[in-house]
Prior knowledge:
Layout: H1 11-29, H2 44-168, E1 183-189, E2 194-197, E3 210-214, E4 228-235, E5 240-247, E6 258-260, E7 271-275, H3 290-300, E8 304-306, E9 315-318, H4 330-335, H5 339-362, E10 367-369, H6 370-376, H7 400-403
Amino acid sequence: xxxxxxxxxxxxxxxxxxxxxxxxxxxxxxxxxxxxxxxxxxxxxxxxxxxxxxxxxxxxxxxxxxxxxxxxxxxxxxxxxxxxxxxxxxxxxxxxxxxxxxxxxxxxxxxxxxxxxxxxxxxxxxxxxxxxxxxxxxxxxxxxxxxxxxxxxxxxxxxxxxxxxxxxxxxxxxxxxxxxxxxxxxxxxxxxxxxxxxxxxxxxxxxxxxxxxxxxxxxxxxxxxxxxxxxxxxxxxxxxxxxxxxxxxxxxxxxxxxxxxxxxxxxxxxxxxxxxxxxxxxxxxxxxxxxxxxxxxxxxxxxxxxxxxxxxxxxxxxxxxxxxxxxxxxxxxxxxxxxxxxxxxxxxxxxxxxxxxxxxxxxxxxxxxxxxxxxxxxxxxxxxxxxxxxxxxxxxxxxxxxxx
Length: 404
């Protein structure tokens, strides 16, 4: 029963053999029963019970491990399925990105091709236009050269004709009418500083209008300087009262002295053109709005102001030659962005000055310096007034007594 076989030997031999086999069995079972050390003399039944307990625990542990393994396998399968799904999604997205990239690259190549083609077409068009413009410019240049040659020939013929005419009859002086008196002094009240003029409301004079006074019997001086200046303050139909603004003690105003105003005219409106820069009150500072202020005075006094000269122009009023600042550098423009604009404007003003000056000379239109203009309108004593160049309010009509 111990060895599982019949041992036909003596009991002593059998005992020793069984003892030896049991000891070997205990030694073999000991590694599987770790909770205690087995005594070799322990009986086989207790050992078998111990081994059964160990086997039962081992089987239970194995079952639990198999369950855990099954769960891990399921988790692994689920994770692997998710990884595969994610990989499939990423692969699809990657393929979509590749398709989009291919489409963008294709669109870019098409756009680049179209841009190059359009650029080539524009270049070709511009080159054709440039060639056409050059041909047209050459034609214009030839026409201009021909016209200049014809103009020079015409000028030569005109100069020769003028020379022949001058030998027969002097050239008419267009400035002659400028030096004609407009009226005269008919009464002088030296004590009151008042004079009477032979011009009244019927002659369309008005309060605030000024006149230069020149000696009777003598022509108006070419430089325009007058012996006195007067300003109308009272009106009657046939005469007016004027206060003496400026007068020389050694050469006082006398009856029959002539009076004149370059702008005012009883019968017609004179036309003026202004060029240059103007220092209105002679303080050494050029006023930027001076042309507008002088134009306002001329308009208020019945004259007209034009931008360009023509055969209808009566007088060109000449200011100082427009100054041109140095051409701004890049550093200048960094400091003052408007420097280029001022430079261009000064260039335009200088060009206009030269053009109008030359045209007026060719048309023999009188050109008066600003100082002479002030003399001829009797206004040198008025320039310091705050609103000297905004004109007066014409008081047409009205009798003498109501105007006082």
